[in-house]
């Protein structure tokens, strides 16, 4: 089973930027096409279609088509502020750049093609350390850009199962630009919907709390973990005379189509079942390449 995987440098995960849901879907769909065994260049053209996004997001092709057109017109102008070098190398520096150097909207085909900007290349390719990985299907059905961003921030700390961030840092990372200045509005329109969508659509469950400095809410604390795989529902068997032949095996569930027995056998120490499944999928894909 070939599940598209998203790889991002942690520096990009923590960068400051704002993208709409459909801009995110375009960018993430292209990122999953980056080959792990080949250097990425700024000359490579990546393409996503309205049909594929509609299928992944569970929306109509017409709706996806309309949103993609609008997103393509905005995407070229979108900026991203990076605060760290990729792979943890080099001195910390603030870099303002663009996601892409070219966006091509192919109306007749219902597709969008793009080239990543040269400064973005090392944040997406040849990552050897300090990077985050997750399956595109984890966020495909989210319709909140904040939910996608928050999910990535939690995946970055997946092994810790907890992440604390300052409210001001999160505002800057999401580039809210003065919106929701009151903490009650920030929680109502940003935090709560994002957490609800992660709980509904992703493999993670998440809870959150707040921490005060004096009387002011200064930090948010997210506690999260892997959802337990659903046990298959057993059909009731009619009572019959005599004993059944053989021994029935109990269903153990699966993650991304990989049986739990395989994941448990091949998971590394301290590696979550989710990460182990993603690693096994990635290894299988590289062997086929």
Kindly name the structural category. alpha+beta
Q: Return Rg in Å.
A: 21 Å
Q: Largest sheet, described in full?
A: 3 strands, antiparallel
- Can you name the CATH architecture of the domain at 1-141? Orthogonal Bundle
User: Care to count the β-strands?
Assistant: 13
Number of helices: 9
**Average pLDDT metric:** 85
CATH H level, superfamily name of the domain at 1-141: Winged helix-like DNA-binding domain superfamily/Winged helix DNA-binding domain
Strand order of the largest sheet: 2-4-5
Order of helices and strands: EHEHEHHEEEEEHEHHEEEEHH
- First-to-last CA distance: 14 Å
CATH fold naming of the domain at 1-141: Arc Repressor Mutant, subunit A
Question: Spans with pLDDT under 50 lasting ≥5 residues?
Answer: 237-252
Sheet-strand content, in percent, reads 15-25%
What's the helical proportion of residues? 25-40%
Regarding CATH, which class of the domain at 1-141?
A: Mainly Alpha
Shape, per Cα inertia axes? globular
Question: In a few lines, what is going on in this structure?
Answer:
This protein has 289 residues and is of the alpha+beta class. Helices cover 34% and strands 23% of the residues.
Describe this structure in words.
The structure is a single chain. Among the domains are: 1-141, Winged helix-like DNA-binding domain superfamily/Winged helix DNA-binding domain (Arc Repressor Mutant, subunit A); 254-288, no CATH class. Helices cover 34% and strands 23% of the residues. The chain contains 9 helices and 13 strands. The protein has helices at 10-13, 21-31, 50-57, 61-75, 145-156, 167-173, 183-201, 260-266, 273-288, and strands spanning 5-9, 16-17, 46-49, 79-82, 95-98, 100-106, 111-116, 131-135, 162-166, 204-213, 216-226, 254-255, 258-259. Strands 2-4-5 form a 3-stranded antiparallel sheet, with no helix packed on it. Strands 3-7-6 form a 3-stranded antiparallel sheet. It is globular.
């Amino acid at each position: 089973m070939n599940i598209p995987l998203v790889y991002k440098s942690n520096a990009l995960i923590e960068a400051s930027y704002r993208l709409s849901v459909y801009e995110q879907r375009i960018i993430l769909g292209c990122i999953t096409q980056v080959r792990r065994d080949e250097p990425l260049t700024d000359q490579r053209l990546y393409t996503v279609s309205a049909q594929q996004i509609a299928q992944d997001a569970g929306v109509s092709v017409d709706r996806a088509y309309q949103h993609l057109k609008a997103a393509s017109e905005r995407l070229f102008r979108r900026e991203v502020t990076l605060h760290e070098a990729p792979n943890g190398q080099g001195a910390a520096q603030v870099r303002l750049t663009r996601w892409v150097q070219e966006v091509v909207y192919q109306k007749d085909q219902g597709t969008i093609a793009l080239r990543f900007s040269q400064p973005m290349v090392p944040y997406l390719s040849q990552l050897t350390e300090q990077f985050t990985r997750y399956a595109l299907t984890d966020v495909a059905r989210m319709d909140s850009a904040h939910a996608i961003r928050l999910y990535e921030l939690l995946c970055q700390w997946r092994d810790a199962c907890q992440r604390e961030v300052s409210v001001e840092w999160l505002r800057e990372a999401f580039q809210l630009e003065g919106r929701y200045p009151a903490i009650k509005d920030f929680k109502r329109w940003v935090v709560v919907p994002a957490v609800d969508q992660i709980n509904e659509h992703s493999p993670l469950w998440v809870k959150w709390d707040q921490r005060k400095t004096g009387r002011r809410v200064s930090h948010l604390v997210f506690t999260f973990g892997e959802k337990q795989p659903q046990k298959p529902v057993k059909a009731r068997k009619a009572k019959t005379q005599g004993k059944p032949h053989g021994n029935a095996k109990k269903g153990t569930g699966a993650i991304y189509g990989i049986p739990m027995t395989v994941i448990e056998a091949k998971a590394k120490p301290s590696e979550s079942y989710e990460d182990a499944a993603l690693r096994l999928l990635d290894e299988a894909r590289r062997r086929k390449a």
